[in-house]
Amino acid sequence: MGGAALLLAATDALPLRAMQWLKVDGGPDAMVAAVNYDPGVCLAANASQNALTGEILFRTPSLLGGQAAKAGLSCASCHVNGGDNPNFHFPNASGAPGTADVSNSFFSATGGNGTFDPVSIPNLAEPGKVSRADPGELEAFLKTLIVVEFAGEEPHPAALSALADYIRALRSCEVQGESGRSLAGDLALVERAALMAERRMAERDEDMARLLVAGARDTLGRIYERFAGDDLRKERNSIEHSSITLHAASRETGSSNRIASFAVWRETFHGLRQILQRREDESLYNVQRLRERLE
């Protein structure tokens, strides 16, 4: 699929990659409810553009780096929409469902403490052990978490700022029920990430731009796995082409070439949106089809 950002690990038994890290009691209905879990968390109405950038990074595995990124885990894997995840269960890093041991040596050979001590995954919309108000304290905590506990590369200061602002903007809100992911929501995330990446490139912030492109491509990968089956092969090919085109645009040298390449990508992406929306009901975004696939 044109790069690690689109490498999917779904299987015939578990068609969605995220299902590998969920443990439920029950059959297909329980798994569908788990993958569509709504923690009742949303962004503040006045969330800044920096917080919206942080939302993209929060869902991007390459931000964490190390073994977590290779497995396709992002911050959002444990914290759905910034909340908790009572069904999360990662081999050798979780005890009961909804717990994780982030000091496990699987994630970091140097950051592992040699003790299996999983704790409940917190809801980030609620007050935590790290102050949200003190300038720089949350950023410092996030840096340590990524570099030490997940063995990732030291994040760009702008990435830490965006991630911290996203967490500060999280609020508790009414649970919508079995909402889960939507095609419209995922396409909007891709488009927003690509637009933000293009702006960062114009500002010569290449590191942040490529991280945002990685986030866009990872979301395209999640859309790809929802369009499963031989009947949707054409749609999957179009998703793959969109990812490759976006990656190529982000690697262009020279302002005029880059602007032209992103313009081409946007035009083809709008076409992709229409193609996918026409077949959405036949995809695994359709909850009933997802249940049937698990039976």
UniProtKB/TrEMBL annotation:
<keyword id="KW-0408">Iron</keyword>
<dbReference type="GO" id="GO:0009055">
    <property type="term" value="F:electron transfer activity"/>
</dbReference>
<protein>
    <recommendedName>
        <fullName>Cytochrome c domain-containing protein</fullName>
    </recommendedName>
</protein>
<dbReference type="InterPro" id="IPR009056">
    <property type="entry name" value="Cyt_c-like_dom"/>
</dbReference>
<dbReference type="GO" id="GO:0020037">
    <property type="term" value="F:heme binding"/>
</dbReference>
<keyword id="KW-0479">Metal-binding</keyword>
<dbReference type="InterPro" id="IPR036909">
    <property type="entry name" value="Cyt_c-like_dom_sf"/>
</dbReference>
<feature type="domain" description="Cytochrome c">
    <location>
        <begin position="49"/>
        <end position="171"/>
    </location>
</feature>
<dbReference type="GO" id="GO:0046872">
    <property type="term" value="F:metal ion binding"/>
</dbReference>
<keyword id="KW-0349">Heme</keyword>
